[in-house]
Every structure is written in C-alpha cells, then in structure tokens.
Amino acid sequence: MATLRRTRLGPLDAVVLLPEGGVKPELGVVLCHGFGAPGEDLVGLGPELLDRLPALQGRVAFAFPAAPLDLAQRGMPGGRAWWMLDMERLLAFQRGDMSLREKMRDEVPEGLAAARRALLAALEAFEAATGVPRSRMVLGGFSQGAMLSCDTALRLEEAPAALALLSGTLICESQWQGRAQARAGLRVMQSHGRQDPILPFALAESLRELLGGAGLTVDFVPFEGGHAIPGRALDALGTLLQGALPGR
Known about the structure:
By secondary structure, this protein is α/β, with parallel strands linked by helices. The protein has a single domain (2-244), classed as Alpha/Beta hydrolase fold, catalytic domain (Rossmann fold). Helix content is 35%, strand content 23%. The protein has eight helices and ten strands. The strands form two sheets. An eight-stranded mixed sheet has the order 1-2-4-3-7-8-9-10, with helices on both faces. β9 (187-193), α7 (201-213) and β10 form a beta-alpha-beta unit. The chain is globular, with a radius of gyration of 17 Å. The chain starts with a strand and ends with a helix.
C-alpha cells in the first residue's frame, strides 16, 4: 500500500505517493505533466501502476510536480505550463508546416532553462525527503513534461535510473546530440501515437534515432492513436520501473 499527500518540493507544488509505514523506498519516480494540464494530471498513474505490478509496492516512491506557470490568464483555468508556447505557431505546426517542424527540432524554447532549474530543485527536495539519490530516480513525463524530463536527464551530473518519454518530441537537437553520448546505456521507454495531431510521429522517430544512435537503450512503443497514454504505454512504463529496481 502507499499514501498520497500534497506537499512542496523545492519551488514546486507536488503530489507524492510514498510507501506506508515509513518504509524507505528503493526507487523514485518523477513524472511531469504536459502543457495545459492541471498539476495533478498524472497522479492517477501511480496507484494504477502499483495495482498492476505488486512487485513495486513498498519499494517505489512517486512524485508528480506541478509546472510553475499558471495558464488562467491564457484562458485555461487550472492549466499549468513548464514554459509558454506560441499558440498561433503551434496551430501552424499542427497544420503540417514542415519549415516549422524542422526549426522546432533544434529550437531551445524560451523558459526551458528556468523550468529545468525548478525541476532540479524539486528532485533535490525529493531526494532529501525520501533518501533516494537522483541516480535511483526514473525521470519522465507526458508531452511537454517528457521534453523537460529528457533535457534534464541529459544534463544531470550522474545519469538517472531510467527515462520515460510519453508522447514527447525532439527539441534542442544540437544540444541533446552532444550530451546523449554521455548517457550511453541509459534505459529509455518512449511511446507515441501514430495519429498524434499535436506532436508528429515522425519527430518521435527522430528522437528515438538520436537517443538510440548515441547508445541509449530505447524501448520504442508506437500505438494506433493520438496524444495519449494508452494501456500499452502504461505496460511498458511498468516494465521500465521493474527493470530499474535494485537487483534487476
């Protein structure tokens, strides 16, 4: 069993799911939500994974940080963002403007560095609260949260236990290409819908090629569908977590 509670991790509000009875976890899992979602959007994944995989119970602590930017003034009450998006540009991107697609893959979004600093501070606070070092944490997220998690994982002084990319995409290509070599052997689970109308499947394949070409071990999980986390992706995430447990 595990206990959900709301807390503060560094500069970010968060929900954590901890083993009951003060048991020290062996693995930490930090999952970041996507653009426009409420801060607690992914919280339900924790209990579901524990129900699906009893081997994780009592051994894994989850953290679900809320992004720092409030989108209420953008007409999205309750929505949060890790960094702001140009919505007109995003719509053009979704309409298939190939020039924007090529530009986006190597673009460093304004606000990414600030989001990364906030997440790093949250990881430090999570480590202090649980005793789990960052090298024993699985970083991951959905959509914009996946992009942030990938960027952060490639910049940590020590590699995390694993990386989970749920419907993310390739950005910062030049920077990630240079840093990925130092993460050779890192286990990555990457899922993406073939009909994703927001982040094209082709760019997800480019991200897989970048990471795999640098020596990371990528479990690529395509699925028929859109911008979502289907059961198949959740199964693959559970397999990643089981494999990241000490002794596996």
